[in-house]
Amino acid sequence: MEVVNTIGRRKSAVARIYLNDGKGNITINKRELSEYFPTTTLQYIVKQPLNIAEAAEKYDIKVNLDGGGIKGQAEALRLAISRALIKIDPELRKDLKSAGLLTRDPREIERKKPGQPGARKKFQFSKR
């Protein structure tokens, strides 16, 4: 099998992955998964598509992660892995789609407006 590469985004995080046959190693920015995402919740988010596809021990994944926070990065990586698995086996699409792993979450941070401290927050009103 040749190397499959895909991209996943969430908020301002971007995950570029290279998936090929292997033993189930996930390397993120030259670090192990458990080192990069120390909490089991984030590790679970990343491994969700592999668990649904029952391919946790089949592929090695090399990841370049950039931007955003830790949760956004984990969810961007989840989307990239889901897309790569579909490139390999299109029959997985139904299962991953029903789990909601193929939808790019469109929510972005709202911009700050001039004349106020944040996107929605206003300065305190003073009557006198």
From TrEMBL:
One of its GO terms (biological process) is translation. Residues 103-128 are annotated as: Disordered. Keywords: Ribonucleoprotein, Ribosomal protein. Residues 104-113 have a biased composition (Basic and acidic residues). Signal peptide: none annotated. GO terms for molecular function: RNA binding; structural constituent of ribosome. One of its GO terms (cellular component) is cytosolic small ribosomal subunit. Belongs to the universal ribosomal protein uS9 family. This is Small ribosomal subunit protein uS9. It comes from Tangfeifania diversioriginum.
